[in-house]
């Protein structure tokens, strides 16, 4: 099943968390870029969230949302990134707790991948093996 199908199954209460994470890790998602090569993020609840989209239509829906910073009909630069690279390489290179928010403009199709053990590397996970040492 593709990523959107796994998200739908989880939201319906019939999904498998392992299958969802596996599909996200294999999927190529679109991540908007700002100020050159920086990835678009938003902060909420003490966590930085990398905004990722399953396709250009999902990204376009986000750009039309109030507060997105989008300008109607403007082009957004983005990169295509495999989910595993976001989780295993990009997030560990950032400061502070960071997760991935997928398709956040889709009320019934969004999904969060928080900075939790088993999702991101333990050394950067909230509650991971090095958290107590960093405090």
From TrEMBL:
Domain of life: Bacteria
Protein name: SseB family protein
């Amino acid at each position: 099943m593709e990523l959107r199908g796994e998200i739908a199954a989880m939201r319906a209460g019939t999904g498998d968390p392992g299958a969802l994470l596996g599909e996200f890790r294999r999927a190529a998602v679109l991540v908007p870029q700002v100020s050159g090569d920086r990835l678009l993020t938003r902060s909420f609840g003490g966590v930085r969230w990398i905004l990722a989209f399953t396709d250009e239509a999902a990204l376009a829906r986000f750009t039309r949302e109030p507060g997105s910073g989008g300008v109607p009909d403007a082009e957004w630069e983005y990169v295509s990134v495999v989910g595993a690279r976001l989780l295993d390489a990009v997030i560990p290179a950032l400061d502070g707790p960071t997760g991935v928010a997928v398709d956040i403009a889709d009320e019934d199709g969004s999904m969060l991948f928080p900075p939790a053990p088993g999702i991101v590397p333990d050394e950067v996970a909230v509650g991971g093996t090095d958290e107590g040492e960093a405090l």
